[in-house]
Amino acid sequence: MMRMVRQNRSPRGLFDPYYCPDKLLHRDRELGLIDGIYRDSCQEDYGVNCLVHGISGLGSTVFSRYFLTKLTPKEFDSHTVYIDARRKDALEIVAELNDKIHRETNTPITIAFDLDVLWMQFKRTAAATEKKTVFVVDGIDETNEEIYSKLAHLSKEIRASTIGVLNSHDYRLLTKGPATKFAYDFEIPLDTYTQKQLYDIVRHRVEDTFPLGLTEEIVRYITDCVIEFDAGKPRTSIEALKALWPLATSGQEITSDAVRAATSRITSSIQEMDIMDTVEAISMNDYITLLVLESLAQHLMTYKTETYIDRQTLNELVMIKCEEQGVRFVPEDIERSLHTLIFQSVVFESGYSRNLLYVIAPPEILYDASLSLRRELSRRK
Ligand SMILES: Nc1ncnc2c1ncn2[C@@H]1O[C@H](COP(=O)(O)OP(=O)(O)O)[C@@H](O)[C@H]1O
Ligand SMILES: [Mg+2]
């Protein structure tokens, strides 16, 4: 089947933290919610405040920006103001709000450096607008709680709306006290993505950015790793794509080694545990498990573009090895060995199909370890 190839690919989708895809995937429920809340407030002419939150890296920034920059201009006749408040102090936040509302409403600004003066200016201009305004304050946390609730209260007063965006950690801290709780009317918790949804997001980003695309296998492998080790956060998968981007654009072949390197930061907890020790411990007197691991690693070493091996291929490879070694081949033994290897996190099953197996450690290391341990076992016999 022909795949539709999108024109105008650009690396922005990987490198710009404010990049907004043309379509926000798998956020229909949440977009419907915020759209409905804002629509009601426009129709009845009152201000409404929302908190958007989710685990960090899940997509709360892109969600709020999508609503503000793509939906609001299309569906509502409102001014929009976005500020990223993370690591800024109260003065910087108010100065930026003031600056943006003046630009948005085309009103001349008077230079000021005093927090109260700036706030008064901001308040006056924000209150004088004819249209409603949507403020998005991204990355709110405890440090400037006072300013955030002050803005939320002002919004209500002037029939504007404020959307506070924060990660789950800051959300727990902020909503312990009453100030934030009272200032906001609604909450929009963002759902975590399923494997399939994360895959769609990664796939979409690859189509948007990579000049020659990436194979399905790579996209799947990144998704598998992010779901297994990082709670399915899209941000981590975009980081992995970023690492692959220079290779892809220079025309180099993207091998499974490159993909493992790109995802190594996510899987480092696994890599840090001494793989040799684990293999040694599970293979004490277990010749067949070593043989299975050896065959699996050897296959992945030989076929550098393959990140997975399927069970059928593995069975055949083990069968050949058994013959070479004069060992009886028992399929149930292979299943049992695989079970152990998977249980000990030496081998992993793909979330897409149990039939597909992958490793996190370099196959060379697994191969050397299993081969030398197996030889030692033979010697002892
Ligand atoms: N539903 C989605 N569709 C497309 N891209 C998404 C979606 N959700 C998250 N992303 C992407 O995931 C990355 C992380 O999102 P971001 O909004 O920066 O996370 P957060 O602010 O929650 O830490 C961004 O590159 C964003 O574009
Ligand atoms: Mg963010």
Structural account:
The protein is an alpha/beta fold. The chain folds into three domains: 27-189, P-loop containing nucleotide triphosphate hydrolases (Rossmann fold, 3-Layer(aba) Sandwich), CATH 3.40.50.300; 209-270; 273-380, Orthogonal Bundle (Arc Repressor Mutant, subunit A). The chain has 18 helices and eight strands. The protein has helices at 12-15, 28-44, 60-75, 90-105, 115-128, 145-157, 168-174, 178-183, 195-209, 216-229, 234-249, 256-262, 264-272, 275-282, 287-302, 311-325, 331-343, 363-380, and strands at residues 49-54, 78-84, 132-138, 161-167, 186-189, 309-310, 348-349, 356-358. A five-stranded parallel sheet has the order 2-3-4-1-5, with helices on both faces. The protein has a three-stranded antiparallel sheet with strand order 6-8-7. Helix 6 (145-157) links the parallel strand 3 (132-138) and strand 4. Helix 9 (195-209) packs across helix 10 (216-229) and helix 9 (195-209) runs parallel beside helix 11. The longest helix is centred in the last third of the chain and has 18 residues, at 363-380. The radius of gyration is 27 Å and the shape is elongated. It starts with 11 loop residues before the first helix and ends with a helix. The mean pLDDT is 93. Residues 19, 21, 24-27, 54, 56-62, 201, 234-235, 238 line the site of adenosine-5'-diphosphate. Adenosine-5'-diphosphate (ADP) is lined by residues 19, 21, 24-27, 54, 56-62, 201, 234-235, 238.
Summarize this entry quickly.
It is built from 18 helices and eight strands. With 381 residues, it is α/β, with parallel strands linked by helices. Bound molecules: adenosine-5'-diphosphate and magnesium ion.
